[in-house]
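=== RUN LOG ===
request id: a7f3
mode: sequence -> structure
chains: 1
length: 162
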Amino acid sequence: MGEQQHVKFPQEVIDEYAALGIDILALFSAGHLGNRMGVEIVEASADRVVGTMPVEGNTQPYGLLHGGASAVLAETLGSVGAMLHGGSSKIAVGVDLNCTHHRGVRSGLVTGVATPVHQGRSTATYEIVISDPEGRRVCTARLTCLLRDVRAGDGPQARPAG
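=== RESULT ===
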């Protein structure tokens, strides 16, 4: 679980990062936390990011999907969208996350869809809708990311030396 082998990226994004010698699948993955929770990103562009997460293993004591798990899915998807919007010269850093939980879900796979509300030079805001297997809204989230210039030491986003 959590492997990013089936992510669909726009060709221009693949080309941009390949020219910099950056592994785009690793860069735009769910990260260590998302991987532990089974988050999988299945589609990614600056205008739409789609991902899934199993309910099993991500529940609170009553057996319902944990609100924090929904927040992890939402922040992961919104951050990927913001990073794609910012491009290879920017890094997206979450500065505000708001989640409203509408209904409980006990099993299956939830799906999150992140779409932009604002795409600026220094910030990007995404709305993330998380739905249950029947397509009913479980959570609505809003994430705002600061887009800052890549600096040495930023990890895989940093441009190769030379």
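=== NOTES ===
The first strand starts at residue 40 and ends at 45.
The radius of gyration is 15 Å.
=== END ===
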